[in-house]
Amino acid sequence: MNARTVGFAVALVLGTASFAAADTKNIDRTLPLNGSGTLALDVHNGTIQVRTWDRPQVEVHVHIDWPGLSASSDRFPTVDIDGSPDRVSVRWNSRYAYNWTLWSLFDTQWGPADVRYDITVPKTVRLEIHNHNASTDIRDFAGQLDVNTHNGRTRVDFASFTRDSRIEMHNGMFDASMPAASKFNFESRGHHAYVDSDFKPAMHAVYHGRGENNVGGTVNGGGPNLRIVSHNASVRLHSKG
C-alpha cells in the first residue's frame, strides 16, 4: 500500500468518525410582540410551522440537526433571534454551510442541515417570510402575510382575511384556505404557473410561454388585496366553512 493510498484511507476513517459524531442544537426564545407587530423570518432550508394565540408575545423553538458536524464546532450554524415588541427577527446564520470544497467530502459536509422552526405568534401579526428550499405551514392566521420564496412550499389557513397580502414565488407552491364569505381582491400574474380557486371569478387558469399573464377579480364584493407573482409555481385557494 503506497503513501497516497494510506493517506486516503486515513482521511476516510476520520470522515467516518466525524459522521458518527453527529450533533444537534436547540434554540428556545420567548419575546414580547404586539398583535400589530411584525415577525420577520429569513431562513434557508428546513420546515417552518407557525401557530397562533392571543398572547402579546412570540415563542420560537428551533431544532438544528447536521449529521457529521458537532454542535460545539464554530462551523455549526445557528439562528439569530432578536427584536422589540413591534418587530421580531428570526434569521438563519451560517458562515460555513454553503462553502463547499473538496475537503468537504471528508468533513461530512454532504448536504444542508435539517432545521425545524416551531413558532407561535399573536394571531393578527404581520408575517414577513423570506425562504429558500423551505416548507411553511401556518394555521389559524388573521394578519398580513408577505412571502418571498424560491423552491418553497407555503400552506396557510386563514381564520379571516382582513389585511393586504403578497406572495412572490419562483418554483414554489401556495395553498390557502379562507372562509367562504371572505371579501377580497385577487390578482395572480406571472408565467409557467397554475391557478386553481374555489372563488369566482378566478376559478382556473394555466400560464404558458414567456409572456406574463394574469388572472384576478373581485371576490364577494372586494376587500383587502391578495396579490401573487409567480414563475413555475402553483396556486390553490380553498373555500371553507
Would you kindly provide a written description of the structure presented here, covering whatever features stand out?
The chain is mainly β and 241 residues long. It has one helix and 15 strands, in the order H-E-E-E-E-E-E-E-E-E-E-E-E-E-E-E. The chain has a six-stranded parallel barrel with strand order 7-8-10-15-11-9. A hairpin with a 6-residue loop joins strand 12 and strand 13. The radius of gyration is 22 Å and the shape is globular. About 9% of the residues have low confidence.
At a glance:
The protein is mainly β and 241 residues long.
Salient structural properties:
single chain; 241 residues; mainly beta; 6-stranded parallel beta barrel
Beta-strand percent range: over 45%
What is the chain-wise order of helices and strands? HEEEEEEEEEEEEEEE
Total strands: the figure is 15
Query: Could you tell me the radius of gyration in angstroms?
Result: 22 Å
Unreliable parts: 8-21, 97-103
What is the overall shape? globular
